[in-house]
Design brief:
Layout (H helix, E strand, L loop, with lengths): L3 E2 H4 L5 H4 L1 E9 L4 E9 L4 E10 L2 E15 L2 E9 L2 E2 L6 E10 L3 E6 L5 E7 L7
Antiparallel strand pairs: 1-8, 2-3, 2-10, 3-4, 4-5, 5-6, 6-7, 6-8, 8-9, 9-10
Length: about 130
């Protein structure tokens, strides 16, 4: 897979760049917690994400989400249809849009369109577990 920078060539970004398993961790300064996530983006347009929140080395919360994703230009749309294995009522589906900033063989950076929150994930091997 070739390295693709959206700043250089947004038209080269495609689903194949995103398909795979990704890991991210970010510090939440206000709550002094760390949020970790493992994301599986599949070629059939489905996704699953496992989140966990940690404070002082203690697990505070875990959540699993799944649903559908698609890429249109440099905008990734995710529709969460299940949380912790329970299907949401269609009126409660969570629809989120992200601007893809950069995707390479090893990194994915994107920004939540509504909140402006920025994310960076690192590609990991299938079967990766939380550290």
């Amino acid at each position: 897979m070739a390295c693709t920078s959206l700043a250089a060539a947004a038209s080269e970004l495609n689903d194949k760049n995103i398909v795979g398993v990704w890991f991210g961790a970010r510090q939440q300064r206000a709550t002094k917690t760390e949020t970790q996530e493992i994301c599986h983006f599949k070629a059939d347009g489905s996704f699953s994400i496992s989140f966990r929140r940690i404070k002082d080395g203690q697990l505070l919360e875990e959540q699993n989400e799944s649903g559908r994703w698609e890429l249109n230009g440099n905008v990734k749309t995710m529709v969460t249809t299940h949380i912790n294995g329970k299907q949401l009522d269609t009126s409660k589906y969570i629809i989120e849009k992200y601007v893809m900033i950069e995707v390479t063989d090893s990194d994915m950076r994107y920004e939540h369109m509504k909140s402006g929150a920025k994310f960076r994930l690192t590609r990991v091997q299938e079967g990766f577990k939380f550290p």
